[in-house]
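Why do we care about 3D structure at all? Because function follows from shape, and shape follows, mostly, from sequence. That is the central idea of this module. The next example makes it concrete: a single protein chain, its amino acid sequence, and then its structure expressed as C-alpha cells.
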Amino acid sequence: MIKISHYFSTIDITKGLFVAILLSLFIYLEHFGYSIFIVITIFALLGLYLLIDSEAKVWFWSGFFISMLWFWWIMLSFKIYQIAWVMPFGLIGIGLLYGLMFLILYKIAQLISSKTKIPIVFLLAICLFTISYIHPFGFDWLKLEIIFHNSYLGTSWWQFGLILFAIALAQYRQNLLFLFLVFLAYSPTAYTTNTNINPSIKVTTTNIPIDVKWQEESSQLILQQIFQTIDDGINDGYDLIVFPESTLTMFLNYETAILEVLQEKSQKITIVIGALFWDDGIPRNSTYIFNNNTISVAHKYILVPFGEYNPLPKWIGEWINKIIYDGGADYIASETMSEYKIDGVIYRNAICYEATSKKLYKDNPKNMIAISNNGWFVPSTEPTLQRLLLEHYSKQHGTTIYHSVNMSPSYIVANGKTVFIK
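And the structure:
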C-alpha cells in the first residue's frame, strides 16, 4: 500500500523542483531574451539525466512542478471570469494531474523491469519519449523534445530518442563517455528565415483587453480601427491583411451591414479576420475570408479543452459550465480541417490553440494562417511557449506560418525561425 506521506520528503520535493526548473528554463530564457544555445543544451541534458536517475517520488514531483512552470498561465483566465478564488485549486489540480502521470509511467517501467530484467533506465527513457504522445483531456502542449529547440541538439523524434538513449546508456554503463553519443543529434543553428515569406501579406497585431473586447459599447470603436487598418493596408500596397482571432466579438454572419463593408473593401485587398459564427443554434469560432467581393468561412477544427468545450462527462461538464461559464454552451468543432486559396496559394486555417496541435500539420501544409487571442493569458509566458511550439512544427513540417495575435506581438514563422512584425 502506498503511503501518501512518503511523497512529502523535503529532499524529494527539492529534487523534483530542481529537475523541473532545468526542463523549463528554455521557456523563461526565451521569454526574457536570453536564449543561449550552450546553456539551454547543458541544462536540458542535465535535467533529463537527473530525472532518469531518480526514483518514483522525484518523478511525481518533477511532473508536478513541470506542469506548473509550463502551464501556470492557464489560471489567469479565471481572473477574467471573476472567479480568481479558483486559481490556486486549478494550479494544484494541474500539478497533481501531471505528477500522477509521471508517477504512473515510472511504476509501469518499474513493473516491466522487474518482470523482464530490462534495465529500468532504458524503460524510463522510453517513458520520457512517450510523454509527448500523452495528452490529458486532449491538451498536447507538453512536448518534452522542444526543450532542445534553441540548442545545439535537434527536436525530431529520432534525435530526441537518441538523446534519451545516450543518457540511459551512460547511466547503465556508469560511464559518462557514452553521453558523447548525443552529438549524433546535432542540429545546425543557422536557418534561412525569409525564403518562403510572402511580403504582400500584412499580419496585424491588436491590443484589445478581453474585458474591453466583449463590451458592446466598444464594438463601434473596434470596427472603426479595423476599417482604418484595412484602408492603410490598401494604401501601402498589400494584397492580403490578417486580423487576430475573435477580432469581431459578434456572430458576423448575422451582421449584414458589416459584411457588406468588408466585401466592398475586399475588392482591393483580401481580408482574413476572426469572428463568431452562428450555425443554426451552434456557436462556432471561425475565420472569415473576404476575397474579391466574396465571403467564405473556415470553422475551428480543434477546440481548447475546458476553454471552448468540456471534455469531462456530461453531468459534471454541465455543472462546471454553470459555475464557471454562467451556463454558456460549448463551441462545436468543425468535422474537418479547413483550407482556403488566395491568389493561387493554399493556406491551412488555424485558430489559436489548434495551430499548436500536431493534428493540424497533417500532409505538411506549405502555408498556414494562424489567428490568436492571447488576451486571456497576458502577461505571462504563454505567448512564448506558443511561439516555440509553432517554430517546432514549422521546422518539422516545412510550414510557413503567418500568425496574427491580440495582446502579444504578431510574427511570421518560416523554417523554424520567427520574424516579428514591426
